[in-house]
Amino acid sequence: MRVLAAMSGGVDSAVAAARAKEAGHDVTGVHLALARNPQTYRTGARGCCTLEDSRDARRAADVIGIPFYVWDMADEFHESVVDDFVEEYAAGRTPNPCLRCNEKIKFAAVLDRAVALGFDAVVTGHHARLGADGLLRRSVDLAKDQSYVLAVLTREQLDRAMFPLGDWTKERVRAEAAARGLAVADKPDSHDICFIADGDTRGFLERRLGSAPGDIVDGRSGEKLGTHNGAYGFTIGQRKGLDLRVPAADGRPRYVLSITPVTNTVTVGPREDLEVDTVTASRPIWHEVSGDVRCEVQLRAHGEVVPATVSIVGSSLTAILETPARGVAPGQAIVAYRPDPDGDVVLGSATITAGTRASAHA
């Protein structure tokens, strides 16, 4: 097959490209230039969008012995990922930009262009598995599993995807990279958000949305406890950085319970008030199942799984949790898994719109 290898400049994508070539495919490497101004994105081998990453990807392609190109997708990335990130926070939601990048850039814009150019598939270094049955499964390395951020992919996109590293641990990947003479063998993994150079998410949002002072109130009494400079600087479940001027009567910490952009209000309360047992979500992407499905759901990246019963009616998904969950934030993804001896199978995903509790605390 003619295969396009998406090479981020990291060790995983380099080894994935090498393994695709070793499997006999006709492989071409491509690095995505995603920054309109690369100097504003992360540097120091920590991101996936820097000039350094582009050079590392080119060197890896040279060692592997495959053609290599750079595709400028900065405008698409800014519109689909960066602008979406800002708009979601402004609406009181908590987006996952890596998930959106996989959905809109790596497996939409890139795959569409690859198919138009005559490629049969796109290979990436994601830690996830595609079985012979075509189903997406968790990686064997659960600490590095990325099936959560890939669960937004459609059946058609998965049919043209290749994930060669799903049966490998990160340690084995690095060992293979070293054995192949790839200089990125010891390169650190990327962390945080690539387009926020200093890691200050609140500052990044304030520069784009401006200062918007509002109140922080108690979720039970309605009492004003403090003020903020922008509701977009908070997320459900947040404990630190609240700067409350009125201490709780019981001395316990408070957490963000909800964000209301219309009134620019942040509501806080005790930890138990974060608990929800029903999650609703929109835009479901569901694979080969129908009716009420008992499964396990993951409600945020690297979060714990919770047993649940999931049902879909039209464009809405509802999950009834068997065990209450905390910190369920609108804008995040809910991903459903079916336990399987060969590895948990991704049943589908949706974007969380709300979390509720059947019985409120007294």
Structure description:
- 25% of the residues lie in helices and 29% in strands.
- It is of the alpha/beta class and 362 residues long.
- The protein folds into 3 domains: 2-186, Rossmann fold; 211-273, SH3 type barrels (Roll), CATH 2.30.30.280; 275-356, Elongation Factor Tu (Ef-tu), domain 3 (Beta Barrel).
- The strands form 4 sheets. Strands 12-15-14-13-16-17 form a 6-stranded antiparallel β-barrel. It has a 5-stranded parallel beta sheet with strand order 3-2-1-4-7, with helices on both faces.
- A hairpin with a 6-residue loop joins strand 13 and strand 14 (305-313).
- It is globular and about 65 Å long.
- The N and C termini lie far apart (62 Å).
